[in-house]
Design goal:
The complex is a heterodimer. Chain A has 16 helices and eight strands. Chain A is of the alpha/beta class. Chain B contains twelve helices and twelve strands. The longest helix of chain B has 18 residues. The chains are: A alpha/beta, B alpha/beta. The interface between A and B is medium-sized, with 18 and 20 residues.
């Protein structure tokens, strides 16, 4: 049976139960029948105050949500960035969540103008829920995706919409759903107690004052309906798919025309207690394919990170033209789960090209890695090896001077790897980009690299 | 398992015992709303008189909402509550009839001395109880006197208005006894500007308060009238004694009631038969301004039966 039908039957059963109770009690003014309730509901629609009251309460609700959300975003950003700040305010948030709503209302009644009370109550009930959820969301942001966004110079808008927002979305919307459910009831309670001139709560209080039970129930139904609509609205909002914002440029910019060497002089890099690179000096010349071979833990990934600037050397110097653009294949594919394969490749391109040209470039790159048939799939529909190929296609499609590949053929079968390498060599002959890649596999290195660099384990 | 069942029953027992207000069969339950009506009942509270060997047990109810709930549940045999609530409940199908009226007005406009009304714009008058007796009687008074005020309902109870007046937030307001006496004593710059309780020279006032009875007291109106009349006369003639009774029983905080405040409550018991015209006039007046307050219409004759 369909879900909607079951809900409908459930509502009908509730109405039937109400009707039976009303008939049994036989006090139509105090326990109105279902037809009387419906009549009261329609009578409300005909009154002038109905729309004013709905508008006032909804306006209070929306203002409360927006105010709380804006404050929560700011607070969450500060909490996530400064731990001390979070620790300082955490007890306050816990108190705000634990204080009974009625205490807030009673205190507010003493100090505030009645019209302002529901809004303040909305803020006090919604803000802690949103702030805590968003803080958790910001703390849980994946650093790999942020690094990817920064390496590919993804525009600020696209970064916000496609890198940060999807990661924060579960936290934001679970916070919003509970905050709105809780806040909505608190607003109405605040309206009842402060007796605002207009508002659903004020109307409920008046109905109660005049012992107008059908009207009171009708207003309750209206409140439930609006709460339901808010809930649906939030649900809809969470399902909105945001498009990638593309640049207007239609032609190929010649990014690869001037490629500068990268000179590493006596570079040492040390994580807190482990030294991974010691006194390394090398100059990477333009247009060459470098293969870096080394045992695990001897600094291959660190070297790539030093080259693209995501790590700074502990000692030594790396000189290169700062304008040079890198494209990177990271240790993990770092794909965005809410975007298709095509969109994942187009996202970095969006800052450089228009939509159709980006897709054209992405399609060519997908052909190199033999993934063109998967262009409309989402990453979670792909195997690890396929995801790795998409990450490689993304790096190849991006108009960079230097391509840094961290074990790009991991998880790929031999024959496919060879075919991809051959296409990359052919492409490189034409485009003259500098390619620096790491691998454990001697055959991969021998086939792709023009120059092989062997790193030694640092003791 | 047995232990769990035992605890479950224990839990149920605790839950049920929370609301085990047993109703005694050998008493008539009298519910009186806290306020001027209680003053009228002081002697009855003290004496606990009997009717047909059944004691009249008086309970004080704190809010009109609680009073409505008591009457809807049929837990009171006799009740003193605002007239508009009594009429409204009757129109909602409750089988309570009107016995009489003990309080004929306790509403006054108070103002700070030396307050000059703004030369431009209108003066603000703070009122509590939007849509109820204080609001309607104020609007009626202003209309009769041709006065123009901007009405402000942001302070919803006499207590809040008292605080507003004492803190200086409010300059002019409608106040009710016994709060009025309290603030007049606390702030000598406040004074009574006008009384809202005199519809005309022939009427005893506005029939603000009702005493209603349940079918269980049918046929006992004569003795009830006499007891209530005696109790009201006691409050008026021996206000100090009445105050002592109410203070001793912690119904009013010591010092909150004075003989003047009792005088300003206009306590005088009139049975339905004696005051029918005044009661109907009052209900019609309310119906004119806010029909919903009395349940949409003036109650039919069943509310004020000829034969009680």
């Amino acid at each position: 049976m369909k879900k909607g039908l079951i809900s409908f039957i459930s509502i009908c059963l509730l109405l039937l139960f109400w009707q039976l109770t009303a008939s049994y009690m036989n006090q139509p003014e105090l326990i109105p029948s279902v037809p009387d309730l419906i009549k009261a509901l329609f009578q409300l629609f005909a009154t002038d105050t109905f729309y004013k009251s709905i508008f006032a309460t909804v306006l209070r609700g929306i203002s409360g949500i927006l105010l709380s959300l804006a404050a929560a975003i700011l607070a969450a950003f500060l909490f996530a960035r400064y731990e001390l700040f979070y620790e300082l305010f955490r007890p306050l948030l816990t108190i705000m969540r634990s204080v009974p709503v009625i205490s807030f209302i009673l205190l507010a009644l003493i100090f505030l103008d009645p019209e302002g009370i529901p809004l303040m109550i909305a803020f006090l009930t919604m803000f802690p829920l949103l702030a805590e959820n968003l803080t958790k969301g910001i703390i849980n942001l994946k650093p790999g995706l942020s690094l990817m966004a920064s390496q590919f110079r993804i525009s600020r808008k696209n970064k916000l919409i496609h890198i940060y927002y999807p990661q924060l979305k579960p936290f934001l919307f679970s916070g919003l759903v509970s905050a709105i459910g809780f806040g909505w009831r608190a607003i109405i309670m605040g309206e009842v107690l402060s007796q605002c001139a207009f508002g659903i709560g004020g109307e409920m209080k008046r109905a109660q004052l005049f012992i107008s039970v059908p009207e009171l129930i009708a207003w309750t139904i209206i409140a439930i309906l609006i709460s339901f609509l808010f809930d649906r609205g939030i649900n809809r909002l969470s399902h909105i798919k945001w498009n990638i914002r593309f640049s207007n440029i239609t032609s190929e910019k010649n990014y690869t025309s001037v490629i500068y060497p990268i000179k590493m002089t006596d570079v040492t890099f040390q994580y807190t207690d482990i030294k991974v690179l010691s006194h390394f000096s090398y100059t990477f010349e333009p247009g060459i394919i470098y293969g870096i071979k080394a045992p695990s833990g001897s600094g291959k990934t660190t070297l790539l990170n030093l080259l693209d600037g995501s790590l700074k050397p502990t000692k030594g110097e790396i000189s290169s033209n700062k304008e040079q653009i890198f494209s990177v294949v990271f240790q993990e594919p770092e794909l965005l789960s809410h975007l298709t394969v095509m969109q994942n490749i187009c996202l970095p391109l969006a800052s450089v090209y228009n939509h159709s040209y980006s897709e054209q470039k992405a399609r060519k790159a997908l052909e190199i890695v033999e993934m063109e048939a998967f262009h409309d799939r989402y990453p979670n529909e792909l195997s690890y090896g396929q995801q790795q190929r998409v990450a490689l296609a993304r790096a190849l499609a991006y108009p960079s001077a230097i391509i840094l590949l961290d074990e790009p053929f991991k998880g790929l079968d031999k024959a496919l790897t060879i075919r991809i390498i051959d296409r990359m060599i052919a492409r490189q002959t034409d485009q003259k980009q500098t390619i620096i890649f790491t691998s454990h596999d001697q055959e991969e290195i021998d086939r792709l690299a023009s120059v092989i660099i062997r790193l030694q384990t640092v003791n | 398992m047995k232990k769990m069942i035992k605890y479950f029953y224990l839990f149920l027992l605790i839950l049920c015992s929370c609301n085990s207000g047993k109703k005694e069969n050998n008493v008539f339950h009298v519910a009186v709303l806290r306020g001027p009506s209680v003053i009228a009942f002081a002697k009855m509270i003290e004496d606990s008189p009997e009717i047909d060997s059944k004691r009249l047990s008086v309970d004080i109810v704190d809010s009109p909402e609680q009073m409505q709930a008591l009457l809807i549940k049929g837990e009171a045999d006799l009740a003193a509550l605002p007239m508009i609530n009594a009429a409204n409940l009757y129109n909602k199908g409750l089988k309570y009839s009107l016995l009489g009226c003990p309080v004929w007005g306790n509403l006054y406009i108070v103002e700070k001395k030396g307050y000059n009304a703004p030369s431009q714009g209108t003066n603000t008058l703070h009122i509590f109880g939007a849509g109820t007796t204080p609001d309607i009687l104020t609007r009626y008074y202003l209309e009769q006197k041709g006065l123009t005020y901007s009405l402000n309902y942001s302070f919803s109870t006499p207590q809040e208005i008292s605080q507003g007046l004492l803190s200086g937030q409010i300059r002019t307001a409608v106040m009710a006894e016994p709060f009025l006496s309290l603030i007049l004593r606390k702030d000598s710059t406040l004074y009574i500007k006008s009384s809202l309780n005199n519809p005309d020279s022939t009427s005893p006032g506005f029939a603000q308060t009702a005493i209603v009875y349940a079918p269980s007291l049918q046929g006992k109106s004569t003795i009830l009238d006499s007891l209530l009349d005696e109790s009201c006369q006691f409050a008026v003639n021996q206000p100090e004694q009445a105050i002592k009774i109410l203070e001793n029983r912690n119904i009013f905080v010591p010092g909150s009631l004075t003989p003047e405040s009792i005088e300003r409550c206009q306590i005088k018991y009139l049975s339905t038969k004696e005051a029918k015209r005044s009661i109907l006039d009052f209900l019609r007046l309310i119906g004119k301004y806010e029909p919903k307050a009395i349940g949409g219409k003036v109650p039919n004759d069943g509310f004020m039966p000829e034969k009680q």
